[in-house]
Amino acid sequence: MTYQIVTPTHRPKIAGQTGPVVPQSVRGFYRRLKWGLLVMCLCVYYVLPFLRWNRGASQPDQAILFDLADVRFYLFGIEARAQELIYLTGLLVLATVILVLMNAVAGRIWCGFFCPQTIWSDLFLAVERFFEGDRREQLIARGKPMTVKRAIRLVAKHGVWLAIAAATGGAFVLYFADAPTLLTELFTGKASALAYGITASLTFTTYALAGFAREKVCTFMCPWPRLQGAIWDGDALTVNYRDPRGEPRMSAKKAELARVHFLPAGDCVDCNACVTVCPMGIDIRNGPSIACINCGLCVDACDTTMGKLGRDRGLIDYESWRNIERERKGEQRQPVKVIRPKTLGLAAAALVLIAVMSVHFATRSPLALTVIHDRNPIAVRLSDGTARNSYEVRISNLETQPAVFELHVTAGAPLSFATPGLEPSLDGAPLVIDVPGDDMRKLRVSVTGPSTLSGDIQFTITRPASGEEVSKTDRFHQP
């Protein structure tokens, strides 16, 4: 098996095509599927910020919100805080596992149907065809002098592109503040400079990448094509050309004549329909390519041609590479197994990650305790022979309401501890500490113990109202 890297110099030469790829429109099952997923994804992206979710008094009622002011993330009934970065790490790992699983099932299916670059490029191409016509009309117009009518169409096209790009950037910032309020502020000029800056930045990138870069992003800028080559699976359903059936290529009339004389003749009539509809500008008949995004448009184009000729569909189809090799050897095609050890292992890994994160999230404590031992000096000998160690203790109240906590310090020998501004603890009595909601209180705690005390000591905070507690262990040193 060989891979090809499609660049402008390697792109198949098609009559009338120069410069950027101008794909031909196509009809068929996969094109309809892509339109349906495009509409669904755009609706999700633009509508989600406006969904409401009741979280109670003094809480934001936006269903999905990245609250930068309080450094919190809200997802319907889930609330994540800045201290819980581990969940973001877990989600990134989970996304990677799912992406590899999708690749093992159907190659770059994400790229062809769900990737934002693909979705917005499809949308921009639809706008382009509306104003400039299909591929043939565009290529003919490019070879002629500019006219007033064409100039008006170009201005209108770019105006709509910019409107879509601005809506994309504007919708993104709505996830970071109350959407209806921020939307009003954006239109009335009352939004912050940061909101306008992010909107302008995403407007420019969407306009440039979906309007002009298109296939270059997928081939040269995105790292996934290179990773795809490393995790390529010969049992995955990918778009492939059945060359044993299609070769040698010739016109339908020549193929009929060749078959009459018992000469080899393939089903491919070399119409180039599969190439002209490809948004990447590649020829799938040359074999697997790292530029192929598995969108299936060439399948629709080839099936249309085969239907017109009265031949069976599937000359280009979603097929495993192992079956293509079997056909080359004259062996029987085997059913493609989606459920196999690799996919089962990846699915199990994804489920385990989801289960672990869900359990950890559901059982998390609203309290957080950090203990840091002072290093200069690490310990001090007092005049009565006892030793004193100092610690920085940080108590975080992760709930929205203020709370009262008790701080206990215990060890294998009697000790006392104190912090400036609070009564010292004697005979094991706790320190009582008030911590506002969504806040952290930092204390300097001095722990005094006998000369025989050395080793681990335990700091524990409890919330008497609920009985919740969190403990941390540190070392007590002698001078």
UniProtKB/TrEMBL annotation:
InterPro entries: 4Fe4S_Fe-S-bd, 4Fe4S_Fe_S_CS, Cyt_c_oxidase_cbb3_FixG, Electron_Trans/Redox, FixG_C, Ig-like_fold. GO terms for cellular component: plasma membrane. Keywords: 4Fe-4S, Electron transport, Iron, Iron-sulfur, Membrane, Metal-binding, Transmembrane, Transmembrane helix, Transport. The chain crosses the membrane at residues 35-53, 85-106, 159-177, 193-213, 343-362. GO terms for molecular function: 4 iron, 4 sulfur cluster binding; metal ion binding. PROSITE patterns: 4FE4S_FER_1, 4FE4S_FER_2. Residues 258-287 form the 4Fe-4S ferredoxin-type domain. PANTHER family: FERREDOXIN-TYPE PROTEIN NAPH. This is Cytochrome c oxidase accessory protein FixG. It comes from Roseibium suaedae.
